[in-house]
Amino acid sequence: MWGTERWARIGMGTWAGGLISTFLLVVVAARVAAKRIPRLAAKTALVSVIATALAGALFAWQFPRGVEGVQTDRGVWLFGAGAVLGAIAALLALRMRDVAKSAPAQ
Questions:
Q1: Cβ(43)–Cβ(92) below 8 Å
Q2: What's the confidence (pLDDT) of residue 29?
Q3: What digits encode the pLDDT tens for the residues 56-75?
């Protein structure tokens, strides 16, 4: 093994956090599609995305250097873009207004 045990644990935490964040953002999307305001799910997704981004940054920072043939590639940039887009989606869901209250009475 060419990385430390701590680095491997951080990698597993990043992986698990990504799965949890993805699930929570799907829940947010489902609530928005059902014309509901997903406040709790969006807050939870935002916290999950931030925590996962921090773990991912630590994972990339502690990436072992000097091992021949091993390097970080575009996955680091895609992970960062996904974290930013996930945070934006959660923030937009939190800023939603209640559609039922703002619709004119018929």
A1: no
A2: 95
A3: 999 999 887 776 777 778 88
CA distance 35 to 83: 25
What's the chain's length in residues? 106
Can you read off the two tokens belonging to residue 31? 């609530």
Closest of 40, 1, 6, 3 to residue 24, by C-alpha: 40
Cβ-Cβ contacts under 8 Å for 52 (sequence gap 6 or more) = 14, 17, 18, 20, 21, 83
Say if CB 89 and CB 28 are below 8 A apart: yes
Tens of pLDDT, residues 11-60: 999 999 999 999 999 999 999 999 888 999 999 999 999 999 999 999 99
25/48 Cα distance (integer angstroms): 10
CA distance linking residue 50 with residue 62, whole number of Å = 18
**Cα angle at 64 between 56 and 16, to 5 degrees?**
30
